[in-house]
Backbone:
C-alpha cells in the first residue's frame, strides 16, 4: 500500500548503533510478526546502518495514517529526553563547544 521512513535517523536523534526504520503498510491477512521475520531474516544495511523493515496492516497495527502520528509523538518524547541527558565535557568539546548567551565557547 505505502511505505515511510521513520525513527531516530529521520530526525537526527540517532545514536551510533541506531537502525533505519522503514514502515511498510501491506494489504494482507498475514500476521505482522510473521511478515517482520520474513522481511528481516537477512542482514540489510545502508552504509553502516542496519535497516529494520516493520510491516503493518490495517487489521493489526493500523494504517500509516493512524500509525505515523504515534511515531511522531514517540520521537518528540525521545527528543525531549535527549535534551535532558547529561553531556560530558568531552562530548561538548568534540561537538562544537559550549553555547552561552554571549555565543559559543
Residues:
Amino acid at each position: 500500500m505505502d511505505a515511510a521512513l521513520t525513527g531516530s535517523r529521520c530526525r537526527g536523534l540517532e545514536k551510533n548503533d541506531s537502525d533505519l526504520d522503514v514502515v511498510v503498510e501491506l494489504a494482507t491477512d498475514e500476521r505482522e510478526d510473521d511478515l517482520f521475520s520474513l522481511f528481516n531474516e537477512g542482514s540489510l544495511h545502508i552504509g553502516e546502518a542496519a535497516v529494520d523493515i516493520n510491516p503493518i496492516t490495517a487489521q493489526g497495527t493500523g494504517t500509516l495514517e493512524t500509525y505515523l502520528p504515534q511515531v511522531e509523538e514517540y520521537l518528540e518524547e525521545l527528543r525531549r529526553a535527549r535534551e535532558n541527558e547529561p553531556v560530558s565535557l568531552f562530548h561538548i568539546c568534540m561537538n562544537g563547544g559550549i553555547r552561552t548567551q554571549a555565543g559559543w565557547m
